[in-house]
Design goal:
The protein is an all-alpha fold. The chain contains 7 helices and 2 strands. The longest helix has 29 residues. Bound molecules: protoporphyrin IX containing FE (HEM).
Length: 203
Amino acid sequence: MKDRIYFYPIWVRSWHAINALMFLVLIFTGFSIQYATTSVSWIRFDRAVVVHDIAGLILTFNYLIFLFGNILSDNGRFYRFTLKGGLNRLIQQFHFYTMGIFKGAPYPFPINKYRKFNPLQKLTYLLSMYLGIPLMIITGLTLYFPAVFNLIGLTSLVISDLIHILLGYFLSIFMVIHVYFCTIGHTVTSNFKSMLNGWHELH
Ligand code: HEM
């Protein structure tokens, strides 16, 4: 029997599945809203707005599962990024992805029960989950409750909108890169299997 680690408890898998699904819905409806006056608008504006709002609210509540799950369980420790030597570790991992991997070099940061993510993975997950998504939620809420936030002034809403749209693009790009890197596991599908059954196989 191969060694394996139970890295993805059911709450991580459920959060992740809802998050990924809502992301796809938000991208689809977000695009339709943004390009409502052009042929890129895939669904009717009013419908796109309602679905976008509902998906945004589901993603927001779902984010609380991620946040509190990480606070209350062991999973949060995998997101701790130590600044000392951090740049060096990122460069080492970058070298591996751009050179080492093609020469069959060993993984610079092999996965074990104390290390679930490599340094590049850790930094991108940290930035998207603890900076990108919270900012996306906050700016989304300002647009959903304009009367409340308009007290600060109309310009604040324009800035919110701009940040919301730019982040939408950044996080969409993150998602594409993320899915691509998930294919660079032991086999092309092994990371996806882990996200389905919870177990990471060690090789
Ligand atoms: C269709 C879309 C997606 C697919 C197929 C996918 C796939 C995966 C897979 C296979 C893993 C396990 C490998 C690993 O730990 O790196 C993973 C983990 C993860 N994904 Fe995704 N993902 C998707 C969308 C997203 C989105 C939109 C986000 C956030 C904005 C996200 C954030 C994460 C995070 C933070 C983890 C690590 C969770 C943990 O173990 O604590 N994913 N994803």
